[in-house]
Records
---
Amino acid sequence: MLVYVIRRLGQAALVLAVMATLVFIAVYAVGDPVAILASPQADQQEMEAITRRLGLDRPLYEQYALFVWNALHGDLGRSFVYNEPALTLILNRLPATLELALTALLISIFVGIPLGLYAGLKPQSLGGHSIMAGSILGFSLPNFWQGLMLVLLFSVMLGWFPAGGRGTTRDLFGVPVSFLTLDGLAHLILPALNLALYKMALVIRLTRAGTREVMLQDYIRFARAKGLSQTRVIGVHVLKNILIPVVTVLGLELGSMIAFAVVTETVFAYPGIGKLLIDSIGRLDRPVIVAYLMLTVVMFVIINLVVDLIYAAIDPRVRLEEAKA
Amino acid sequence: MSDPVLSVRDLVVEFSSREGVLTAVNGVSFDVAAGEVLGLVGESGSGKSVTGLAVLGLIDPPGRIASGSIRLKGEELTCKSEPELRRLRGRDIAMIFQDPMTTLNPVLRVDTQMIEAIRAHEKVSERAARDRAREALARVGIPSPEERLVSYPHQFSGGMRQRVAIAIALLHRPAVLVADEPTTALDVTIQAQILSEVQQLAAESGTALVWITHDLSVVAGLADRVAVMYAGRIVEEGRVADVLERPAHPYTNGLIGSVPSRNRRGEPLAQIPGMTPSLANLPTGCAFAPRCPRADAACTTPPGVTRAGDARAFRCFHPLIPVEAAA
């Protein structure tokens, strides 16, 4: 078990190093941030001063060596634009995105699984067909369009929720969160719903497919032959079996929801890391981009590890040691 | 014969499909008395498993019990609601299935699956249920039952899993146990052990057994009476010794002839020509007629039941035993 975790972390370090190198070089190749940062009136001298200050006058290998050296000491560089440490910049905005992604995850689980179960148990019913049709919409309509429609319906026409921003926050263990205030919650619902729609559709389909398959298994028939109630058969025997693929997929999706909530955050002007990334790419703010992606890799590794652990908890046949092979 | 504990009369089970309504079980009748073992024999698709499921009320849509009666200890089951049936299942009538690898839920521990079965019918404490589960495991010959209780199904061998399933099925000492080919997937040696154990356990608790199988040698060793099914009908029924030694129906005769040990070394194995007919496309008369060496023009109408002596019956115009015995 411990060996397994250490092994996984070792692999993660390797991925991290390769990814950082690739991104570093790629952003260098894309263009010169000085041209974007300096004011249009700046003359040659001012431009060179900025270049020197940012350390961009040195050859690539020197820049890279410096980056690696600093990174090993826990310093991922300062943002070209904000002149703040890149990591601080990201971590300051991370709670907003985490809150958004976790809310979306909860919505997709607590709405998606019951709907999927229903559709799986009654595939021929009107309800079952409607759920499946709805999930196709969740899949296929572009995310930004869904976001715009949510704003149009719930903010503009009905006026139930605000159209954008984060709302009032309150500190929970020193982290500003918005779900503790009514205003914050109102601001959170639409973006979270927008982010959740696609995952919900995914969960519905996975749950339905799983349910239909599991219902035909002999052990379900045997459970019924034992005289168990329908609630027990579905709530324990069916649910525990279909959770395995759902957990796997949701684990991966949680990572992508946190890392790439870009579209939703842009549509709802939500001050999370997704919006920071988009802005940074636009300004070729290399330290922020690299730090952001490194953080993303770390996050994915951790989430995958947790998923594996949950996996072992719900499926006794999974032996973590075997994964070494 | 004493009063039957399970009595099935003219049972018809239909499945609606794209090709129309398929009759999987067509007018099946049989009785089983307490402590008796009835072998239900037939090829795949003959309707024997569906009959077993129907007895427990486990036929799911698109299938349904179209007509007929199923009486358990004199109580009619076909008109009972699902909650009423649920209370009977596992307590008065239990079932075990063919593949022990798939009858236990892979993600639940054995104790969970046993305790829930006990507590589905009796209000007992977790601890008392656990004690009973342990005793039940010991009774079916599982070594160190206390440790095995906290194991998962994948940690058992096939034979052990089937023992666990049998232990679960017999937890409430049901009046009837329907066993749907429970030994087919096992090694011969394990099969023999399990057969004798089930026989003994059933005899101890006076449980009537309906043993569904395609294996005549199992029936020969285990059952008191045998009913042979073909295309949804019971074509022959009687005491095991009578039926196996003097089969009346050509199909039964063909089945017996197909047992490999009956054939002589070096000669081609005997077989019944042709295949089981599709349910969507049954002949109007005797369903076996197209494969039958004795069929003639009479066989284009459905044969009725001929009774021959004590507890012997068959559906055939040209039986292999003298019809005078019918008197």
---
Amino acid sequence: MIWFAAALLGFAALAWGFRVAGQTATGRAPYFRDMPFGVAYGYVLAVAALMWLVWAYTQGRSADPAVANKFFFLRIAVEGFIIFSIAAWLFRLLGRSVGTKQTKRLFRSMPLTAAFGIMMILIYVFVAVFASFLAPYGQAEIIRGVPANIMPGGDIALGGNPDFPLGTDQIGRDILSRLIYGAQNTVGIAFVTTVIAFLLGGSMGFLAATLGGWLDQLLSRIVDVLMAIPSLIFALLLMTIASVWAPRLGIPQTYFMILIIAVIDSTRVYRLARAVGQNIVVMDYIEAAKLRGEGLGYLMFREILPNATSPLLAEFGLRFCFVFLTIASLSFLGVGIQPPLADWGTMVRDLGGFVNFAQFAPMVATPPLLAAGAIALLAVAVNFVVDWMLHRSSGLKD
Amino acid sequence: MTQAPDTTPLVKIRDIRIDGRTDETWIPIIKGVNLTLQRGQVLGLIGESGAGKSTLGLAAMGYTRDGVRISGGSVEFDGIDLLTASAAVKRDLLGKRIAYVAQSAAASFNPAHRLIDQHVEGPVQHGIAGRKDSAEDGIALYRKLRLPNPEEIGFRYPHQVSGGQLQRAMTAMAMSCRPDLIIFDEPTTALDVTTQIEVLSAIRDIVAQYNTAAIYITHDLAVVAQMADRIKVLLRGEEVETADTRTMLDAPTQDYTKSLWAVRSFERPAKPAVQTGAVPVVSMQNVDASYGKVPVLHDVSFDIHAGRTVAVVGESGSGKSTAARCITGLLPPTSGQILFDGKVLPADYRKRSKGQLRQVQMIYQMADTALNPRMSIGQIIARPVQFYLGLTGKAKRQRVDALLEQIELDPAEYYNRLTSELSGGQKQRIGIARALAAEPRFIICDEVTSALDQLVAEGILRLLARLQDELSLSYMFITHDLATVRAIADEVVVMKDGRVVEQGPKAEMFSPPHHAYTDLLLSSVPEMDPDWLSNLLAERGVDNIGDAAVNKI
């Protein structure tokens, strides 16, 4: 504790020195002259954090396995960060030189985070579409003559197998193949669910905004009731009911899941669409269209919708992440996507026990983290893109 | 407006260059302007929107908006170079020695704090006066600015005070540190004429009393003539000319300045009187209307004949726009009826037939909100053509092209553009084309020129007049600007508090005797004569102008 306080005080002294040094070195350039102390302090803290990170990284690469294991995941994270940054930078470079005039312009003004997001989304889509060509084995295929729980990494000395670079799970299925098929199942189902949620919530929201009155009241109160119930618990409840109904009606349980999550999430979309719609409905051009005698459909989809695209698109990105996480959670809880279909949420649950090995055998603990990482990476990527789109539509200049 | 004996300039701007960022490149906004302001002097900055008036005004404080940078030149305030001054030096100047009064006081006050709390913030922060002294001083300033209930008004929140009063409270706030320089950025543009006159006289008095220098930014020439000692005319970021107010008004040297001065001379020839017994195109008969339970219109009746323009005049809240909403059917009247060509129109627009809707078109005040920003010009104009006339394909395109030519825009160039790529005047023209596309007989023009600069507004008025002659349209022209009325109207209806107080042909309206309210409206319109405000105040006294006088009627 004393050390901590001393370090903070030391940083403060360093920050003060840094500012003075900057002022004298640049001859009181406006940037250093007007720099608040907090900013100088921030610089010093950032440098300290960076130095620790470099130290930790070198520890992670140390020859002593006991030390290296401690910093194994940090090492992977740092390396991943650098590789992805370079890839995103190259991708942006590519976008700037290839494509139409408009896309080139788009890429020129794009921050690196957005380029990363778009790149990752494209990769996920590619993998999901061509899963059956990319995956070396089937998603439910229990490979004969291969033991279960092969370690990832393909290092034979540690118990890996180069034929299965990411190893196999408890019943001997190839984890790489399951990850690839998981993209198809999880992402595909999440996408369909989000689209349904938007069709439902968006049109209802616009309808309420345009017509107002008792219809608006009725829809809004229904949505209030639905929103008052915690969504995951509500979904769990409905899924339990659906699991009884599904075999009786002969409809796959997955369809029920899509519908249930879509309805629950459409309430959030409804709120947004209604709020955005209400701001647009008061515009004079809507009044002009009403006075022209236009019908409801034209008002909603030709006049209001084009003006609501940017907030709705941004919400689409976020909602997609939430839906995706809901599906993963439901699968984790055992009522989501049913085995033997590969799904990232289920994979995390099934392989979760291995995380306990993280301290002394980090490679063994990797399999559940791979699926979790796939989820996290997509969520981050989508959010980067959404942030960028929000920034663009808000018209902020920096 | 006393002349200060000190000859060193208070503000000295030399060859200033300011750029604004658009997409990826820096575009010059101000291209090398010099400005010198002596102590105690008022400088008027005029020019159309986009001329760089506000940017230059802010640069005089050493400040630029986001996405704008100063790329060259120098700004000196009392010998201090503001462009290289440190943040600490600037903090000490702004608010204390340089103050700023924004266009919309309603948007500039923090709605969560009382006026007096915002008033004392400057002096307390700058260590000039304590809270208590500053608050007392604030009340004294409120009294000087002739705000009603000066003792008590400071304890209200911004939304509890009217627009004109807020603007004066803001001037008081700017005065709270007794600055050497105040920058007024269009402080009366958003106000009614009767309110404007009060604010103008209050600002002029207080600036003269404390010998404060001021930069007064506006696009209204008549206003600047009252306020400024010197006038600087800007055009697209460049100075056109600078001169004393009187010299400038009497003998402008540049063509552009002369054209600005000439705007107010447009006036249409009077038309012959309407034949007795002719059926009016639109007739409002004894209309009462209310928003919820609040009555807004009381027994309003007037006729609009074919090929005529009826101007409906009054200040905000007088029911002008509500009358228009009754005619369009957006607000069904509680009693009375609206006749079109002698036939009764259904009260609610939803019950009107397509043919009936087609005959009544509307042009809006704010072209920005009246045109869908996501549609191209072609789509906007083509929709009514297709909807009402059923034209498609080539015939539709031909009709749209013809309409664009009618409003003097080149179809090849503008057909595919978005409204965001047009200037304010061009947007208003698109609004006119959309109304014309329905081939109506009657158009409601709701303050169509009030958001535009005078030169552009004159172009719109001339266009409307030409179209009326060619297509024998009838206009209902809602406005609060009597110069516009003089330019385009055939008949005038004056409204106050939802009642018609006077109506008749234009010539009669502009010659006495008037109704007391018409008289007040007429006398409140600023004239180009620099002595107009002084004369008016001498003639009527401070208590007989503006809102104070309205309340007496």
---
Amino acid sequence: MVTAPAATPPLNLPGLDPRFSHIIAVAGSGADAGLTRDWHYLDTGAELARLGVPVIGTILAVHGNPTWSYYWRDLLNQSLAAAGAGAPAWRIIAVDQLDMGFSERTGIHRPLAQRVSDLSAFTDTLDLTGPVISLGHDWGGVVSLGWAVDHPAQLTGVMLLNTAVHHEAGKPIPAPLRLARARGMLASSTVRTPAFLETTLALTTDPLDAAVKDAYRAPYRTAARRGGIGGFVADIPADASHESFPELERIAAGVAALDLPTLMLWGPRDPIFSDYYLDDLIERLPHANVHRFEGAGHMLAEDAPYAESVLTWLGDNAASLTDPGSSALSPREAFAAAAGSVATGSEVAGSEASGAEAAGSAATDTGADAAPFVPLWHNLDARRDDTATAVIDMSTRGSRGPQQVSWKQLADRVSEIAAGLTAIGVRKGQRVSLLVPPGPTLTAVVYACLRIGAIIVVADAGLGVKGLTRAVRGSWPDYVIGEAPGLAAARTLGWPGVRISTARLPKVSAAALGVSYSLRDLITLGASTPIPAPPRAEDDAAILFTSGSTGPAKGVVYRHGQLSALRDVLAQHFEVTVDTGLVTGFAPFALLGPALGTRSVTPEMDVSAPRTLTAHAVAAAVEASGAGMVFLSPAAILNVVATAGDLTAHDRTELERVRTFLSTGAPISAELLSAAGTVMPNAIAHSPYGMTECLLVTDLTLDGIRAAAGDANTGVCVGTPIGDNLVRISALDSDGVATGVPSTEPGILGEIIVSAPHLKDHYDRLWLTDRAAVRETGIGADAATPDAGDASDASDTTNAAANQPTRWHRTGDVGHLDELGRLWVEGRLPHVIVSSTGPIAPVGAEQDVEGVEAVRRAAVVGVGPHGLRQAVAVVETIPTAKRPGLASPELTAAVRASTTLPLVAVLVVPQLPTDIRHNSKIDRSRLSEWAEGILAGGKPTAP
Amino acid sequence: MIVLVTGASGFLGRAVAAELVAAGHEVRTLQRRPSGVDGVTDFLGSINDPEHVARAADGAEGVIHLAAKVSLAGDPGAFQTVNVEGTRTVLSAAETAGVSRFVQVSSPSVAHAGSALAGVGAEPATPEHARGDYARTKAEAELLALSRDSDAMNVIAIRPHIVWGPGDTQLVDRIVERARSGRLPLLNGGTALIDTTYVDNAASGIVAALHHADTAHGTAYVLTNGEPRPVGDILAAICIAAGVQPPRWSIPAALGRTAGSAVERVWAVRPGADEPPMTRFLAEQLSTAHWFDQRDIRDALDWAPAVSIDEGLRRLAAHYSETAGPVV
């Protein structure tokens, strides 16, 4: 390798302030002992001194291969700007590692231990004192962690972007690196040609600006300057025989002992540092704040707003980062304790005692003022000798007619699978992805996983292959249980996890699908395996993925206590008893039957296509089960109503038994709910409002819907909070941002904020999303305390009396509360039209417009600049318009006359764009962009 | 206040003069023909004749300068003479006469960027980028007027956008006449969102500018109804008000933008008209959005349009039902 002195970068690199550049002579260590090495580094210290602001801590940023300190320019610029604007000042020091960037070319081979030692020598020369937070990307992450574990006195925190500290022995390293390291390839791909550099620069989601690419290339113009790139690739310890392997192991072990605030920001679209490595790091640092930027890749700093995220995190953790002894609990302790303090009344249930107890008795109240935690499987244990029928499956999946499972059979099957899972090594806290369609098998697998504390990962097939792949990879399951089609997809799409097939497969098929076990194998293997102690209320239980109709699907984490609370609120609010019996045409609730201790039946239908459910099938299910309660989705209701004419007199008699009827999953019109009511004449029809994060928020009966129909309030009335739930409104300001202090004041448009015992715990690996969802909801005791004269006081008092820490969630829905405490939903926050007269929620005006005779369906969207947006109605007409364009003068006049909202234009389209899943949620964001285009004078194309 | 209005024989000039009279001002007008406005004193003459202007301005406290050369074609020198030199003459006369408030009636075309405008404010006038002699000379005139803003004489520039209303022989009657003969197409379906200004609002806004020149001077404002509409909507509404069939056919915008196309001629203005609103430039741009941020002008002038587009259309319909037909 060639030697060359350090230098400063060219002056005109985009985003790089030349004032940050410094060169320092560092006394060498290790192989460099006795020598002096010149380092180039970027440092905001001098500029902060010029501003005269006190520095509260230093970020030591280490780039990866083949980048240089330029990678961190946004953080340097933004931190300095923030300090200039009065925020606490963090000094950023970003080094160019030796042989990299504009630092000296040493000509000496520098394995990992040398690089860690180099960095120590650098900070010694700089006389860097704490507090220091390390920050690293790519292999710079490893070097920075090496420095971190060696400097406990200075280190107060750790930040990482796409990196790794461990590689499982025997597992091949990522393919692109194998290729780069292959004999004969190494020198040519990394040094002689800029191929490795160019490949890395091409990894961004959107192509980099040419000038930025050139800036990344600037220190690596010639082969002589690229020696370090090749050195880094050669230094990847692919196996235990590699010279850097012991150092990597030493660092990995040290990391697992770090008990400091930790941030991990990740771009999942990384062919090298995939979610596999993130999962490994989370295992070592379980208390870390983790955010995966869906869509971003290896060059995270170029793909995602990492600098804002870093500064936000530094701000949130400033106290413990600047004074590590300041908080009572260490980050690991706080993480462990957080479970108890945020889960619903389970603080005491978290004691060792309950965990050691036998299944079924965990329900015992172990504390004086803690609500007892009754696990979801409680009734399975309680009725494990009962030969009465627990589950009936009349769906068309089984060709042998209705399948009946008794309580005893179900409890036995759950125990067998639980033992089998334990036998093959499934442990509490591990993730099991379920690719099994609803039915008795899914029910048994779900309860078995829950019982042993494995976290079930459930994503709806409605997400589509792309969405499902994102969901599964993002949650990085340890195991996947599925039927052949799901496992085939898992194999083809490279989903992680040990694969378990529900059916026993021929050896060849099993091998082809990469299947390790069948459920039958598990039962055999687990025959003599004792079932471990049950999980506690505050242990994670499930990750449910959102529908994806409001952005990339997010994993929503529920703890056991929260699932039990969901069961309890359902039981209490709808008065479900052992004798009730459920007909569940809506999959999620089918799973809750055993938890509720009552018989559940899936009617004859294709469970993946609710519209296949007929009125007769509902009647037959009611007859088979004696059920008094029916759960259906709006799509199923539509067909039930459409096929009501086929009901026999006998069917109708059976349906008279139904006392309660729920429409769940999406909003429903009063007309449709009313029509369903005539099929079940003695049932009270309910349409609860909820979301994946809080499945039951409010409830409204058909009578309530009718009462709301003539009301002057705008939006969709969704009723009043269920049980102990709290609903608040955070008013939108003139800029359309929900900045208002959450309140129950009626008539105020704002973001809907909810609290419930069964509210989700957090989002999986989405720290920023999590943070936003609870932003400024610190209203706890204050807001739960009733104010005089407030209409909704009564329920609040009850909630306050529950004496639980109040956890809140910003729903992203907008609406208002009325004088009667009813909630009215008026749309999604991103769809609010921020006009010059203030924010406008779309739903009220859409309802007005849908009152026009010639309009089938309407969307109201904004066009123009933020703060000056103008409302436009886009309508589907009767008869359907042939092509998109301006509405006729007559229709325009009628639509304008229907609403008080000023509409600058009325456009017709043959069909409004909607989500595939429900075919009901109109994609207003897309429609807004489309309207913007054609109202700017573009050619009218279909939206 | 004694107020001089130049160009008061035009559609907008008449409305401004009448609005001033109604507000109790003593109004003088200066143009070549009688203004036809009740209650004003006409000074007939040319704005390029310093003597004519000085005589009309003598003793005035306020000036509203609307007179301009608006035309499709012609000698560039004539635009320069009327729009730039004429404005210079009026400004000088106003200063000599001790006028304290000067309203320069300008045009949004002075700051046109060549692309769709959605919710923008009044950008600085740029003669070097203006398209056509009219826009270029109006831009120069506006810069000239604002450069003369001082403590002694407060200058404010108002750019009304597409003024229409009953009695408008330029725009409205031409639309109606072409629609009647089936020669009015839309561009790209007529979806481009444009701002327009009902004539009474333009007049009241210009008078408000005079009243608030002491606090709002030194600035240019775009003035509209603040109710953007697709161009096809407005054309159809005007046709319906006039009792003729609205346009039903559409042609590609690229064709419409070609000089000399049918569409452009719809919007053409007769040479020699003495007011600003309609230009060739505008005709070229009717296939792209042109609507403006009205918050600043409404704040600065403490003014809001009194007549909505719907009300304006009702008045237009009443006007047509009273007259035998459009005057072309």
